[in-house]
Amino acid sequence: MEESALVLDGVSKSFASENGSWLVRWREGGREHTRRIVAVNDVSFAVKRHEIFGIVGPNGSGKSTLVRLVATLLIPDKGSITVFGHDVQREEMEVKRLINRVSVDAAFFKKLSPMENLLYAARLYGMDAKYARERVVEILERFGVKRARIFQPLEQMSRGMQQKVAIARAFLTAPILLLLDEPTTGLDPRSKKGVQEFIRELRESHDATILLTTHDMQEADLLCDRIAIIDNGRIRAIDTPEGLRRLVPRGDGEPSLEDVFMELTGRSLEEGEQ
């Protein structure tokens, strides 16, 4: 049986309150509304090695919480998570050596250059400085970052270019499980396309398994081998993009993943954002 890169078994996570739920507030129609939700509710799935596995759903559906649980940043209330057979709680350091994470709000020392930021990250992982410097130039030039820009302050770079640096930082440590949490959110179309192309290249050129979260159904359709649709902390379906489309009655045209979401939840993705 092919080794699974990532396995979640009955994972749940809630946040502090008197009943173990997370209080969410929002305003609509001039009134404040509240509801209590569990961030992740009895989630189970396995990701195959070398797979691009997508988790799609609206903001607040539990995507980022799942990524933080896998990344050892949060501890599950229930269930277990293993990365290449290593338990994220009992073998935290072993797991951290195998993974890296890119979030929508990647943290940098903005006054420093991409080279300085990435060398700092390399030092944290115990990489040889000379080798790391060579790899930084190689990776960033491959991403379309001109050599001169590699040594200029990061604050002078566009949001899209900074996100490429964030992905380069993750790639520098050669993770075999890469966690991409909304990596293209807020990017201009050209930068978004560049990041998406790199995600595909990364899987083909490196022995990497990729877990990608997004609320962009088109992006998931374009990149992912299989997709899990999540809503209110629960997995509603897992399948290939084509397999998910078969869940929707065929009309005149090809159903979209947005149509699948509506079929499974009874509401649109925009309603799920509230």
CATH topology: Rossmann fold
How many strand segments?
12
CATH architecture: 3-Layer(aba) Sandwich
Share of β-strand residues: 25-35%
Write down the Rg: 19 Å
Characterise the protein shown here.
This protein has 274 residues and is α/β, with parallel strands linked by helices. It has helices at residues 63-70, 92-98, 114-124, 129-142, 159-172, 189-205, 217-223, 241-245, 257-265, 269-272, and strands at residues 4-13, 22-28, 31-37, 40-48, 52-56, 78-83, 86-87, 99-102, 177-181, 209-214, 226-231, 234-239. The protein has a single domain (4-104, 175-272), classed as Rossmann fold (3-Layer(aba) Sandwich). It is built from 10 helices and 12 strands. The strands form 3 sheets. Strands 8-9-10-5-11-12 form a 6-stranded mixed beta sheet, with helices on both faces. Strands 4-1-6-7 form a 4-stranded antiparallel beta sheet, with helices on one face. α3 packs parallel to α5 (159-172), α4 packs across α5 and α5 runs parallel beside α6 (189-205). The chain starts with a strand and ends with a helix.
